[in-house]
């Protein structure tokens, strides 16, 4: 499957779902009658139409785009790292409110440095610790921005 | 004319405080460093440095962001000159003659002319900016919803038609951006839209979260493939960071010629620094008596695009400040950050908060001066940063991006959005769907819809209102014109 074909299918699918949802929105009885559904309908149609033309263009061998290559197989290590980072990044945000800033940030930074800067544990520990402490110093202490306070922050005088 | 000088004096008064000067210095230095790093452009730089502006007053925040933007433009070419790897797309052209100069043992003059040309381009761009903003802002004050809708439509269309790449994919990116902008409670009727039962989406998606995701997080993901990149840099061979009389003689005219060109390109939506630099390079090569020297270390081949690039960044501030319409990815990020701080750029900024509008303009003069100080004497220590391995830089960028996300709304839901946006941005880059149109549409979607609906109410549902209003009709013709131009250009290229 070519790159443009994939893009066209994605555009039609997302545009289609969005358009159907837009059509289910209520109409107003007075004034701005089409109200909340007019603009979304236009956006949905634009996505579907552009996707359709892209697919039709792909039928012409002279204009055909290159084969879609997301590297799911060839670069599976990269994809593994992306997915792992995504999951850990989300987890980092979810635990921050209960555990405070310093501990989750150090742990997240240790994870990402270990993932990227493999085999240098001491260097990674130093980077993770310094990043958390310096950013806390800049944002919470110097710029006085509110950061979540966990049990470590409770022990600090600032 | 008198009012322009009075306003500029007000701006200088706002900008020249100790705090602002300090932030211009800090922002400019950080921007230079980020702009210098391969693959990281000004948009990513501004996106990950947004948190440092929180807690500042709006004028200082905007001044700091401009300094980061400007710094990134100054720094972008350092990596091009030293290691033949551009910091961002607008620094690609600087590789053409900058790197050959380094190979000839002339890295010092190359770094110097890059800073001098950036300074001259920036200052000339500033002059145009000072004289253009007031009339445009005054004219825009008279715009009603129909004119604003047509203008926004033109800006969106121009973003995809004037830039390179597949037109249809640009349209798809715009459609996706508009769709994202409609998620949440409809401000005009209170109807919940496209939340699919997810309560966290009721307030809509914060576009800054998406921006950080598609610029910073995606950039980190893209670099996962080249994690072990280490660039060889021999700083002993740089020599004196200054130019000879002969270098100046060859460079001053190209710098003066290309600064206005860069500025004009910057004003147009979608035509960013990369187009300005390529056009300037082509122009100089055509005008040169020695075109054969281009690509082999011709100093004017470096001076012209550098001047053009910085003038272009001044031009990009015109639509942002006067109309509230960002013309590039970086100005889109700046607009988003400003809206968070409660400032709405646009014509009313000049009437309601002239000290902010003119303070920013004045601060860019200050920024230019400070940045040439940073980039000339400190050029050698600065380029040492290129030795920092990618595997160390990437975690720091990711960390800053996530902390920045937290500060936006103090919401853990935003972490889900930012990480998903990062993956989607990566997938889009694989599908060659451009991200700047998506970001622009996401930011402008709300006001585009509001103006469309207000116009329809005013005209009792008739779309003819957009053609009956002369200014609106002009913008629609311009939008159609750019679309036709783009189609014709692509057809010619294909033939």
Give the topology, please.
The complex is a heterodimer of chains A (158) and B (495).
Chain A: H1 3-23, H2 35-57, H3 76-99, H4 102-116, H5 121-142, H6 151-155
Helix pairs in contact in A: 1-2, 3-4, 4-5
Chain B: H1 2-15, H2 18-36, H3 42-49, H4 58-83, H5 92-103, H6 107-140, H7 145-161, H8 167-181, E1 184-185, E2 192-193, H9 207-223, H10 245-267, H11 273-287, H12 300-323, H13 329-340, H14 347-352, H15 354-375, H16 379-383, H17 390-409, H18 413-431, H19 435-458, H20 465-468, H21 470-494
Antiparallel strand pairs in B: 1-2
Helix pairs in contact in B: 1-15, 2-3, 2-4, 2-15, 3-4, 3-9, 3-13, 4-5, 4-6, 4-12, 4-15, 5-6, 5-12, 6-10, 6-12, 6-15, 7-8, 7-19, 7-21, 8-19, 9-17, 9-18, 9-19, 10-11, 10-12, 11-12, 13-19
Explain what you see.
The complex is a heterodimer of chains A (158) and B (495). By secondary structure, chain A is mainly alpha-helical. Chain A has six helices and no strands. In chain A, α3 (76-99) packs antiparallel against α4. The longest helix of chain A has 24 residues, at 76-99. Chain A is flat, with a radius of gyration of 24 Å. The mean pLDDT of chain A is 91. The longest helix of chain B has 34 residues, at 107-140. With 495 residues, chain B is mostly helical. A two-stranded antiparallel ribbon of chain B has the order 1-2. The mean pLDDT of chain B is 88. Chain B has 21 helices and two strands. Chain B is globular, with a radius of gyration of 22 Å. At the A-B interface, α1, α2, α3, α4 and α5 of A face α8, α9, α17, α18 and α19 of B.
